[in-house]
Design brief:
single chain, 373 residues, mainly alpha, two-stranded antiparallel sheet, 20 helices, 2 strands, 76% helix, globular
Amino acid sequence: MSELRIALEDAAGEGIISDTQAERLLPYLTARNIGARVAGGLLDAPSAEVANPLEDTEAPRFVRGFHDVLITIGIIVLLVGLWGLAHRYLLVLAIVLLAEILVRRQRLALPAVVLTVALVVWLIYTVIGYISATPALSDNFTIGALVLTVPFPLTLAAFYWRYRVPLSLALLLFSLFGLLLATIFYVIGSALHSTDVPADYPTVTLVILLAAAVGSFALAMRFDLSDPRRVTRRSDVAFWLHLATAPALLYSTILLALRLELGDGAAAFANLANVFFGGYTQALTVLGVVVAMMLIGLVIDRRAFVTAGLVSLGLATGALLRHNNAGLDQVGFLVLLIVGVVVLVIGIGWTTLRRVVVSQLPDGLQARLPVLR
């Protein structure tokens, strides 16, 4: 399937077929075993029947060979050099030129990801620099946030329209969520005469952030459920959406459950770290949320929901050990041991655990979920 997918994407890149036709042809040809490997002119039946564990899970295709890695290293080195020596608008010109060659023409996946991230980093740096230099924006959070989010949907929409990078579509959707959040904060700030809604109304802010995280999760699931076998580009978009949604959903839930005040990002994580020294009930709350997230990850076959909770799992476990009079010199090693065991058990037994969990769900729901392996 990997060779067939690469061939179809190359054909789309050369204009032989459209991107939409490539996405529709892939499951059609795969279902008819047309993409099976051919060795020495003969069909290699065992290879065709044995599923590739990477292709059958959530991993998007990043690298075709070391050529992609070498090109990506060159991109990073070149852009870092331009960052320090040239004007910032020359940097974005370089990103576009490299995207034309490496993404539009050669269809290289890993360079496409790096160039998309580079564009976003450049945009963040440029917009934040403008806001910082404008006191009317930097002194008013609600207006500054709105100005910060406006350029992202426009830029990412143009980038996705031109290069069809799944990550750019995922970031475009997140930027729309960000713009919606900024608009909501602006409306609330205007109604309540507040220039910093998160600081003045932390509980309201947490409710809004949790609602946005749930909406983002629903959007990611829409992409996921539209491609349960994960053979089209929609699966790659869902991967990126879940990768960002999982920590957003986890920490907004934890922060709201613990009723912590949400200031800037650093303060939020500092408050979360205090769970390690907090009460027994707080630790149990965090542990319950983490376990629930891991179960969600098993059901939808997305490991991002497991990895997102590892830090919180360690903090909550440490707090429980401390309340059970574990020695301070032992807590750190015990936490590492427990978290390591949990990760290995879930990682090694992922397929079996998922089969056990999903089998308990109604048949109608099972039929809509990603296939069991």
